[in-house]
Specification:
This protein has eight helices and 13 strands. It has 288 residues and is α/β, with parallel strands linked by helices. It has two domains: 154 residues, Rossmann fold (3-Layer(aba) Sandwich); 116 residues, predicted glycosyltransferase like domains (Thrombin, subunit H). α2 packs parallel to α3. The longest helix has 17 residues. It starts with 8 loop residues before the first strand and ends in a 12-residue tail after the last strand.
Length: 288
Protein backbone atom coordinates (compact mmCIF):
# COMPACT_ATOMS: atom_id res chain seq x y z
CA UNK A 1 0.00 0.00 0.00
CA UNK A 2 1.36 3.41 -0.91
CA UNK A 3 1.81 6.20 1.62
CA UNK A 4 -1.00 8.20 -0.01
CA UNK A 5 -3.57 5.38 0.15
CA UNK A 6 -2.96 4.82 3.86
CA UNK A 7 -5.37 7.65 4.66
CA UNK A 8 -8.21 5.75 3.02
CA UNK A 9 -10.15 5.40 -0.21
CA UNK A 10 -12.85 7.86 -1.31
CA UNK A 11 -15.43 7.61 -4.10
CA UNK A 12 -16.60 10.79 -5.86
CA UNK A 13 -19.98 10.57 -7.59
CA UNK A 14 -20.85 13.55 -9.78
CA UNK A 15 -22.09 13.90 -13.36
CA UNK A 16 -19.80 16.89 -13.94
CA UNK A 17 -16.39 15.84 -15.27
CA UNK A 18 -14.95 19.17 -14.12
CA UNK A 19 -16.15 18.66 -10.55
CA UNK A 20 -14.85 15.09 -10.50
CA UNK A 21 -11.44 16.23 -11.73
CA UNK A 22 -11.27 19.06 -9.19
CA UNK A 23 -12.14 16.79 -6.26
CA UNK A 24 -9.81 14.03 -7.44
CA UNK A 25 -6.87 16.42 -7.63
CA UNK A 26 -7.56 18.04 -4.26
CA UNK A 27 -8.18 14.80 -2.37
CA UNK A 28 -5.21 13.01 -3.90
CA UNK A 29 -3.05 15.96 -2.90
CA UNK A 30 -4.47 15.61 0.62
CA UNK A 31 -3.25 12.01 0.69
CA UNK A 32 -6.31 9.95 -0.21
CA UNK A 33 -6.84 7.21 -2.78
CA UNK A 34 -9.68 8.47 -5.01
CA UNK A 35 -12.12 6.76 -7.39
CA UNK A 36 -14.91 8.38 -9.41
CA UNK A 37 -18.30 7.63 -10.97
CA UNK A 38 -20.70 9.79 -13.00
CA UNK A 39 -24.00 8.56 -11.49
CA UNK A 40 -25.42 6.42 -8.73
CA UNK A 41 -25.58 3.19 -10.72
CA UNK A 42 -21.91 3.45 -11.63
CA UNK A 43 -21.15 4.20 -7.98
CA UNK A 44 -22.78 0.96 -6.82
CA UNK A 45 -20.68 -1.00 -9.30
CA UNK A 46 -17.47 0.73 -8.18
CA UNK A 47 -18.28 0.05 -4.53
CA UNK A 48 -18.96 -3.58 -5.38
CA UNK A 49 -15.44 -3.88 -6.78
CA UNK A 50 -13.76 -1.86 -4.02
CA UNK A 51 -14.78 -3.01 -0.56
CA UNK A 52 -12.16 -0.77 1.06
CA UNK A 53 -13.95 2.48 0.16
CA UNK A 54 -14.48 4.45 3.36
CA UNK A 55 -16.33 7.55 2.19
CA UNK A 56 -18.50 8.59 -0.73
CA UNK A 57 -19.16 12.15 -1.94
CA UNK A 58 -22.57 12.20 -3.64
CA UNK A 59 -23.91 14.90 -5.91
CA UNK A 60 -27.64 15.38 -5.35
CA UNK A 61 -28.71 16.03 -8.94
CA UNK A 62 -27.49 13.34 -11.37
CA UNK A 63 -28.95 11.36 -14.29
CA UNK A 64 -29.73 7.60 -14.13
CA UNK A 65 -29.74 7.57 -10.31
CA UNK A 66 -29.54 10.71 -8.20
CA UNK A 67 -27.78 11.16 -4.87
CA UNK A 68 -30.85 10.66 -2.67
CA UNK A 69 -31.73 7.38 -4.40
CA UNK A 70 -28.13 6.21 -4.22
CA UNK A 71 -27.79 6.97 -0.52
CA UNK A 72 -31.08 5.23 0.23
CA UNK A 73 -29.89 2.07 -1.53
CA UNK A 74 -26.50 2.20 0.15
CA UNK A 75 -28.00 2.54 3.61
CA UNK A 76 -30.51 -0.21 2.90
CA UNK A 77 -27.73 -2.53 1.78
CA UNK A 78 -25.56 -1.74 4.81
CA UNK A 79 -28.55 -2.29 7.11
CA UNK A 80 -29.31 -5.56 5.37
CA UNK A 81 -25.75 -6.75 5.97
CA UNK A 82 -25.95 -5.80 9.63
CA UNK A 83 -29.30 -7.58 10.10
CA UNK A 84 -28.39 -10.68 8.11
CA UNK A 85 -29.26 -11.70 4.57
CA UNK A 86 -32.57 -13.25 5.67
CA UNK A 87 -34.04 -9.97 6.87
CA UNK A 88 -35.15 -7.11 4.63
CA UNK A 89 -34.71 -3.48 5.73
CA UNK A 90 -37.92 -1.47 5.71
CA UNK A 91 -37.15 0.60 2.60
CA UNK A 92 -35.69 -2.14 0.39
CA UNK A 93 -38.81 -3.00 -1.63
CA UNK A 94 -38.27 -0.28 -4.22
CA UNK A 95 -34.97 -1.62 -5.54
CA UNK A 96 -35.20 -2.63 -9.18
CA UNK A 97 -33.76 -5.89 -10.50
CA UNK A 98 -30.62 -4.32 -11.94
CA UNK A 99 -29.79 -2.62 -8.66
CA UNK A 100 -30.48 -5.79 -6.68
CA UNK A 101 -28.04 -7.70 -8.87
CA UNK A 102 -25.32 -5.16 -8.07
CA UNK A 103 -26.12 -4.82 -4.39
CA UNK A 104 -26.85 -8.44 -3.48
CA UNK A 105 -23.64 -9.70 -4.99
CA UNK A 106 -21.74 -7.92 -2.22
CA UNK A 107 -21.81 -9.98 0.96
CA UNK A 108 -19.22 -7.75 2.62
CA UNK A 109 -20.71 -4.45 1.61
CA UNK A 110 -18.57 -1.77 3.29
CA UNK A 111 -19.69 0.67 5.96
CA UNK A 112 -19.46 4.11 4.39
CA UNK A 113 -19.45 7.74 5.41
CA UNK A 114 -21.74 9.73 3.09
CA UNK A 115 -21.20 13.38 2.18
CA UNK A 116 -23.77 15.18 0.04
CA UNK A 117 -22.68 17.75 -2.52
CA UNK A 118 -25.37 20.21 -3.54
CA UNK A 119 -25.57 23.51 -5.40
CA UNK A 120 -28.55 24.56 -3.30
CA UNK A 121 -27.52 26.06 0.02
CA UNK A 122 -30.99 25.42 1.39
CA UNK A 123 -31.03 24.67 5.15
CA UNK A 124 -34.14 22.51 4.74
CA UNK A 125 -32.57 20.36 2.05
CA UNK A 126 -29.36 20.01 4.06
CA UNK A 127 -31.28 19.06 7.20
CA UNK A 128 -33.32 16.46 5.30
CA UNK A 129 -30.14 14.94 3.86
CA UNK A 130 -28.56 14.71 7.30
CA UNK A 131 -31.73 13.24 8.80
CA UNK A 132 -31.84 10.68 5.98
CA UNK A 133 -28.43 9.38 6.99
CA UNK A 134 -25.77 11.61 5.42
CA UNK A 135 -22.80 12.33 7.68
CA UNK A 136 -22.09 15.80 6.30
CA UNK A 137 -22.51 18.02 3.25
CA UNK A 138 -20.62 20.42 1.01
CA UNK A 139 -22.13 23.10 -1.21
CA UNK A 140 -21.28 24.35 -4.69
CA UNK A 141 -19.31 26.38 -5.54
CA UNK A 142 -17.00 24.17 -3.51
CA UNK A 143 -14.69 25.75 -0.95
CA UNK A 144 -11.70 23.45 -1.36
CA UNK A 145 -10.24 24.13 2.08
CA UNK A 146 -13.56 23.51 3.84
CA UNK A 147 -14.11 20.36 1.78
CA UNK A 148 -10.75 18.85 2.70
CA UNK A 149 -11.24 19.69 6.39
CA UNK A 150 -14.63 17.97 6.36
CA UNK A 151 -13.13 14.86 4.75
CA UNK A 152 -10.30 14.83 7.30
CA UNK A 153 -12.88 15.01 10.10
CA UNK A 154 -14.95 12.11 8.77
CA UNK A 155 -11.94 9.98 7.88
CA UNK A 156 -10.34 10.45 11.28
CA UNK A 157 -7.47 12.44 9.79
CA UNK A 158 -8.05 15.85 11.34
CA UNK A 159 -4.91 17.93 11.53
CA UNK A 160 -5.67 18.58 15.18
CA UNK A 161 -4.94 14.92 15.90
CA UNK A 162 -1.32 15.66 15.04
CA UNK A 163 -1.22 18.36 17.72
CA UNK A 164 -1.97 18.59 21.41
CA UNK A 165 -5.67 19.17 22.17
CA UNK A 166 -6.61 21.25 25.21
CA UNK A 167 -9.97 20.46 26.82
CA UNK A 168 -11.70 23.54 28.15
CA UNK A 169 -14.93 24.85 29.68
CA UNK A 170 -14.40 28.59 29.41
CA UNK A 171 -16.57 31.39 27.99
CA UNK A 172 -15.65 32.99 24.69
CA UNK A 173 -17.12 35.86 22.69
CA UNK A 174 -17.88 35.38 18.99
CA UNK A 175 -17.38 38.75 17.35
CA UNK A 176 -19.73 38.01 14.45
CA UNK A 177 -22.57 37.54 16.98
CA UNK A 178 -22.05 40.41 19.44
CA UNK A 179 -25.59 40.26 20.88
CA UNK A 180 -25.52 36.52 21.60
CA UNK A 181 -24.80 35.01 25.00
CA UNK A 182 -21.19 33.92 25.53
CA UNK A 183 -20.28 30.61 23.93
CA UNK A 184 -18.30 27.84 25.63
CA UNK A 185 -14.94 26.72 24.26
CA UNK A 186 -14.68 22.93 24.46
CA UNK A 187 -11.44 22.09 22.65
CA UNK A 188 -8.45 24.06 21.42
CA UNK A 189 -5.47 22.97 19.34
CA UNK A 190 -2.89 24.66 17.17
CA UNK A 191 -5.12 24.22 14.11
CA UNK A 192 -8.71 23.75 15.30
CA UNK A 193 -11.25 24.63 17.95
CA UNK A 194 -14.64 23.35 19.08
CA UNK A 195 -17.23 25.35 20.96
CA UNK A 196 -20.89 25.30 22.01
CA UNK A 197 -23.16 28.20 21.13
CA UNK A 198 -26.88 29.02 21.03
CA UNK A 199 -27.02 30.11 17.38
CA UNK A 200 -26.58 28.52 13.97
CA UNK A 201 -23.59 29.27 11.74
CA UNK A 202 -23.37 28.16 8.11
CA UNK A 203 -20.47 25.99 6.99
CA UNK A 204 -17.58 28.06 5.69
CA UNK A 205 -18.63 31.15 7.65
CA UNK A 206 -15.80 33.19 9.17
CA UNK A 207 -15.56 33.11 12.95
CA UNK A 208 -13.46 35.31 15.23
CA UNK A 209 -13.40 34.68 18.95
CA UNK A 210 -11.56 35.88 22.01
CA UNK A 211 -11.67 35.28 25.74
CA UNK A 212 -10.42 37.41 28.62
CA UNK A 213 -9.49 34.17 30.34
CA UNK A 214 -7.34 32.96 27.45
CA UNK A 215 -5.61 36.32 27.18
CA UNK A 216 -3.89 35.60 30.49
CA UNK A 217 -1.97 32.79 28.81
CA UNK A 218 -0.86 34.73 25.73
CA UNK A 219 1.90 37.29 25.55
CA UNK A 220 -0.23 39.60 23.44
CA UNK A 221 -3.91 40.15 22.71
CA UNK A 222 -4.90 37.55 20.15
CA UNK A 223 -8.12 37.09 18.22
CA UNK A 224 -8.45 33.55 16.92
CA UNK A 225 -9.90 33.55 13.41
CA UNK A 226 -11.20 30.56 11.49
CA UNK A 227 -13.94 29.05 9.36
CA UNK A 228 -16.73 26.68 10.30
CA UNK A 229 -16.20 23.07 9.26
CA UNK A 230 -19.34 21.54 10.74
CA UNK A 231 -22.10 22.38 13.18
CA UNK A 232 -24.22 19.78 14.97
CA UNK A 233 -27.42 20.47 16.89
CA UNK A 234 -27.11 19.07 20.40
CA UNK A 235 -30.38 20.32 21.87
CA UNK A 236 -32.85 23.21 21.83
CA UNK A 237 -30.77 26.32 21.07
CA UNK A 238 -27.52 24.39 21.55
CA UNK A 239 -25.07 23.81 18.71
CA UNK A 240 -21.60 22.22 18.76
CA UNK A 241 -19.37 23.92 16.21
CA UNK A 242 -16.03 22.80 14.75
CA UNK A 243 -13.75 25.39 13.16
CA UNK A 244 -10.26 25.42 11.71
CA UNK A 245 -7.99 28.42 12.06
CA UNK A 246 -7.09 30.60 9.09
CA UNK A 247 -4.72 33.51 8.79
CA UNK A 248 -2.95 33.04 12.11
CA UNK A 249 0.50 34.54 12.42
CA UNK A 250 3.45 32.37 13.37
CA UNK A 251 3.48 34.10 16.76
CA UNK A 252 -0.19 33.17 17.27
CA UNK A 253 0.58 29.54 16.41
CA UNK A 254 3.57 29.45 18.72
CA UNK A 255 1.51 30.75 21.62
CA UNK A 256 -1.30 28.29 20.86
CA UNK A 257 1.30 25.52 20.79
CA UNK A 258 2.69 26.66 24.13
CA UNK A 259 -0.73 26.73 25.82
CA UNK A 260 -2.01 23.43 24.40
CA UNK A 261 1.17 21.50 25.17
CA UNK A 262 1.65 22.75 28.75
CA UNK A 263 -1.95 22.81 29.97
CA UNK A 264 -4.20 19.78 30.24
CA UNK A 265 -7.50 21.43 31.06
CA UNK A 266 -8.85 24.94 31.52
CA UNK A 267 -12.07 25.50 33.43
CA UNK A 268 -13.69 28.64 34.77
CA UNK A 269 -15.90 28.17 37.83
CA UNK A 270 -17.92 30.52 40.03
CA UNK A 271 -16.70 33.56 38.09
CA UNK A 272 -13.12 32.84 39.14
CA UNK A 273 -10.30 31.86 36.83
CA UNK A 274 -9.23 28.36 37.76
CA UNK A 275 -6.91 25.99 36.07
CA UNK A 276 -7.09 22.23 36.55
CA UNK A 277 -4.30 19.79 35.90
CA UNK A 278 -1.54 22.18 37.04
CA UNK A 279 0.69 21.98 40.08
CA UNK A 280 -1.02 22.61 43.42
CA UNK A 281 1.74 25.00 44.50
CA UNK A 282 0.00 28.25 45.37
CA UNK A 283 2.75 30.48 44.07
CA UNK A 284 3.07 28.84 40.65
CA UNK A 285 3.00 31.19 37.64
CA UNK A 286 0.03 30.17 35.41
CA UNK A 287 2.11 30.85 32.29
CA UNK A 288 4.66 28.18 33.16
Amino acid sequence: MTEKSKKGKILIVDDSADIRLLLILKLKKAGYDVLAASNGMEALEVIGDNKDIKLIILDVMMPVMNGIQTMKLLLNRIEKNQQGEGEQPENAEGENAEVENVMDSDEDFPLLKVVFCTAKQDPRQIELALQAGADDYITKPIDEVIMVQKIHRLMGQQDEQLFAVLRTQIPITIEEFPDAEPSTLLELSETNAKFECNFQIADGSPVTFHSSYLEGFFKHNVKLKGSVIFQEKKGPDLFETDIFFKGLSEQDRQELRSVTTTKRELIKKDNEQEEEGESENEGEDPQE
